[in-house]
Amino acid sequence: MTRKSFIRTILVGTCMTFTFLGYVSAADSIGETPIMDMSASEFYTAKDGVTYEGGLYGNGSNSIPSGHANELTQATNNIVPRDINGNPTDSGTIGMISIGMSNTSQEFTKFVKLIEEQGGTSESLVMINGAQGGIDSKKWLDDSFGAYTTLAQRIDNAGVSKNQIQAVWLKQAYGGPQATDPNHIQTLASNIQTIITLLSQEYPNIKVVYLSSRIYAGYATGTLNPEPYAYESGFSVREVILGQINGTTGLGYNTIPVVAWGPYMWADGTTPRSDGLTWVASDYAADGTHPGAGEGQAQDKVATMLYDFFTTDEYAATWFTGNPVGSGGGTVGSVDECVNDYYTQTMVVPFPDIQFDTFESYIQRLHCREVVGGYSDGTYKPGNNVTRAEMAKFVVNAFDIPILTTGSQFPDVSSSHTFYSYIQTLNAHGIVGGYSDGTFKPDETLTRGQLTKFISNAMEYKGISTTSSGTNSFSDVAADNVFLEYIVFLANYSSDGETIIGGYSDGTFRPDVNVTRGAMAKVVMLSSKQFE
């Protein structure tokens, strides 16, 4: 019997009811924009008059800052099987707990059941439901409710020591927020910070705490915790994460574990957010607050979001599945086995939106090589355009180029930029340069012409001669085109039985057309396959 059959969860009791004045009545929408969909020019004003910008990381950005990404990478690399004393050992355990109230408990329980059905986790993983019905963020801070005693009992009952607990999923609420107390966002953020501090003191090997917002609560018919407080919980989570990024007292990387976004779960009722997520009244239990337990209802939806996140996220999958995503490297044997598993359907499809896509096989191989990852919702989005910054990361991972951040820097790529290390690496190795004004323009979309230069220079760096005796067969690529030599080289270079690039049916190449994530995958896979 494998360790997978020992994934454990401990169920909890009933919820408690809170009194509340002035809650929002049940509604299909409250008219707010999900934080992940807010642009830099969109803002939310809380009841205390404080204005909050959009983006999971502020300023309309959903991209993790590079410094935080580095800390998260280091932390997740240290989530390894450990013995009861916390010493790393291949035969040890990775303990993961949930922390929260009744919604969290119900959703985590369904998440564990989904894992038992789907598999795909590390054999060392043991999951323990520490969330407790009726125990909101205030009660996790009040010893009289015994939340930490109950948590310790559940961990012990699961046969896990406190030294083996290394990851946390935390989704909390501030029960019964009052209309006369407008500081809900900051109060919940403060409570979450304190809970994390207490957990880290009791469980010294916790490396990462993943935080999620609440789901939509506009259908609430009672006084437990309606809107706009579920919506505001996302800002509370972000306050904690940005506090750590910005070095706020008590949130430093040397003070508490790394705090990171888990799946962001709020959508404005029946109004689809950018990835299509909605919450309808039939998703819920009769009170309109708790997630429904029936097939396809909110518990199932949240469980799926959690599964997709932890099995595909670039950082979480490192320890959760034992098969990390997006970290580069890999061996030919393991890649071929991974691809074979995918096509024989013995492995969960990594990205549901690539099935039957023209570029499916290329994306899948890059995924198996740990070159590409997906979005927080578990999708790959093959039709999305690629930015120059993203391309830098794909090239570094695919061609296994050593990270090097020394030398001159681009004035528009600060060290805090999400893709700084990849851009700087390509610059330091002479693989890419910038524009005539010295900038790199990381957020500019990549064109087909630029793509050929990235790829040709990376191949040359790896020792492939890019001098070509081939001819230019594209009617729209003039002799003075700045990318001519790269286009000609790749159009005449074969890999795995295909030329790396091709043109359109009308004989054009269209060097100024933007590159999609799907098309990029084909070019990157073919050009780098020999370096697997």
From TrEMBL:
Signal sequence region: 1-26
Domain of life: Bacteria
Alphabetical keyword list: Signal
Residue span, SLH domain: 346-405, 406-469, 470-532
Name of the featured protein: S-layer homology domain-containing protein
Source species taxonomy: Bacteria, Candidatus Dojkabacteria
